[in-house]
Amino acid sequence: MTISNNCLPRVRVIDLETGGNGPNDVCEIGWQDVVLGDDGLWHVTEERGALLVNPGRPMTPDTIAVHHILDSHVADAPFWKEIAASVLRPPGRLDALAAHRAGFEQRYCTPRFTGGTPWICTWKSALRVWPELPRFSNQMLRYQRMPEGLVHEIGLPAHRAMPDAYVTAHHLRDLLNATSLDQLLAWSSEPGLLPRVPAGPDRGKTWDRISDQALENFARDRDVDVRFSAQTELARRGERQEIAPLEPAQGTLL
Fold first, then answer.
1. 36, β-bridge pairs
2. Among residues 91, 139, 150, 190, which is most buried (max CB within 10 A)?
3. Would the pTM count as exceeding 0.85?
């Protein structure tokens, strides 16, 4: 759907490919806009694209093996600090940025480049809206849900910035049409609410099916999403006290 009015509510989906773990190691940024139409529904628009980025140092083989972008491909590309704001702060209205597991993108897309635009995490949001699904990766959501209008070829190859942003945008569109922008922003500001226990003897069970003692143990887990999910179920049961995470078991040498 072509929507050209840049005054309409808009969310820009971002996907990054990186060449390492440093703060400037972005090697590609992709984007795809989702806009609220005059019909009251959100739509994936034709505004999408990608830019290669020079990370300023050789990329690691581990990261190249994921996206297949070579050092020679980015040798003449602009640096991250030169290109980031032009994508993250486009002309016209922008209500939010979005990404799947947005915490990763936020490591690189800092307020310096975004101007403080809020973020939607489609992973956290999918946990809330489609808790019955067995898995929540970007590509698994794609094939479990088969979103309407997603052109298979535009969403390929996986692990390149524009195709991945395009796929994520279809999840975002459906999430926005299922609930409000403000609700997605609120969920995205919290840890992920896992629909099922991820590990241990109770793996695969919904949280309401496990014992209070098991919940209390999970509420001390070092994984923030596990801890939050267990504490949420304890609160539902009326156990509202805060439970501190366990400290590492470490003796003294003295």
1. 42
2. 150
3. yes
